[in-house]
């Protein structure tokens, strides 16, 4: 499974530099996106959910950040944007648990970019709790509180939930996006980062019109 994930990520990388050929990416089920056979319930009923599955160790997720972050910040109030860490063992699980801990502490929005930079630019592994805690402390987060939360029963529950969702979504690489628990697509199927968000916009509009 892990080799499959990494292979999918490499395929994604080959498409990352592609430029948009049109203002709107033509939506085509089975090509531009996949419609899930079994829709997954959204976290906030009544809102259109957009999920990004990612991994701190993925350079393509890191490169996607400058594109997806400003887009997510401008989403209308009827859209709920959610990040879910992909957890497929080894460093994937360690980094996923790190993200979920920061989210539970309410500080993820403050240190998310710093964690990405540390792993992608500074060569830090951040796969051991003590190493994570030491780094997070440099960002103004209490080290002991971080470790207590990291090892908590609540975080174990969040890990289980994240893994179950990735399985239900049928995720095979990152970054991958899911709209309203129904549609799965990525940089490969869409054609690039801007095109991926164009697909997301169209599927959001499709779901809004269906209400």
Automatic annotation (TrEMBL):
Alphabetical keyword list: Disulfide bond, Periplasm, Redox-active center, Signal
GO molecular function: disulfide oxidoreductase activity
Compartment annotation: Periplasm
Signal peptide: 1-22
Cystine pairs: 58-61
An annotated GO cellular component: periplasmic space
UniProt keyword Signal, yes or no: yes
Superkingdom, natural source: Bacteria
Pfam families: DSBA (PF01323)
Sequence ranges assigned to domain Thioredoxin in this UniProt record: 14-205
Listed SUPFAM superfamilies: Thioredoxin-like
Homology family: Belongs to the thioredoxin family. DsbA subfamily.
Name of this chain's protein: Thiol:disulfide interchange protein
Organism: Pseudomonas karstica
Phylogenetic lineage: Bacteria, Pseudomonadati, Pseudomonadota, Gammaproteobacteria, Pseudomonadales
């Amino acid at each position: 499974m892990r080799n499959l994930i990494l292979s999918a990520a490499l395929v994604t990388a080959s498409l990352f530099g592609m430029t948009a050929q049109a203002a709107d990416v033509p939506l085509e089920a089975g090509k531009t996106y996949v419609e899930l056979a079994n829709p997954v319930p959204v976290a906030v009923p009544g809102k259109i959910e957009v999920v990004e599955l990612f991994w701190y160790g993925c350079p393509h997720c890191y490169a996607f950040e400058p594109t997806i972050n400003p887009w997510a910040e401008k989403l209308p109030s009827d859209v709920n944007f959610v990040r879910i860490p992909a957890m497929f063992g080894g460093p994937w699980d360690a980094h996923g648990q790190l993200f979920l801990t920061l989210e539970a502490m309410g500080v993820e929005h403050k240190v998310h970019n710093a964690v990405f930079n540390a792993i992608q630019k500074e060569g830090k592994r951040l796969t051991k709790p003590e190493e994570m805690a030491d780094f997070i402390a440099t960002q103004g987060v209490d080290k002991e509180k971080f470790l207590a939360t990291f090892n908590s029963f609540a975080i174990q529950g969040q890990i289980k939930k994240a893994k179950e969702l990735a399985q239900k979504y049928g995720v095979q690489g990152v970054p991958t996006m899911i709209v309203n628990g129904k549609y799965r697509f990525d940089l490969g199927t869409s054609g690039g980062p801007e095109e991926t968000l164009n697909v997301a916009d169209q599927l959001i509009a499709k779901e809004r019109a269906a209400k």
